[in-house]
Amino acid sequence: MATCIGLRTLAVMGAWGFAMGITVVQAQPSEQWEGVVKDLERLERTLQEQSVEKERDIERLHRQVQEKEREIESQKANIAGIAAESGDNRQTLAVLRNELACTQTVKLFWDSRADMLEQLLGQQRATLSELGEVIPTLRQLRERDNP
Fold it and tell me: To the nearest 10°, the Cα dihedral for 103, 104, 106, 110?
């Protein structure tokens, strides 16, 4: 998460630097322009790849959450069935209730993990959007300095 925030901050600072006037970068040799553009393009590709991975992870976690929800419902039905039976089933019910609590905890963990990944994905998409604005400007400046 810190990496995404750091990259976003870097992108915002870069955009702010362009808005304020690129006097420092303009003074650099043209070879460095090429390096700056390539680094930002590489960063953009990396963020896009990470975004795809996060989307897959989110989908996987949502499937796991759905599986746990089905398992929870099944466990609740088992508990209700055993509770309805006659006889001394207190120990069996206690074990089943503990299993249900564990399953619900795992489901909550996966659900919160999916939420966290969705937030990170949103931050990466915002950074990609900002890079999408900065990179073309850098390319234009590079072309202007390298006729």
Answer: 140
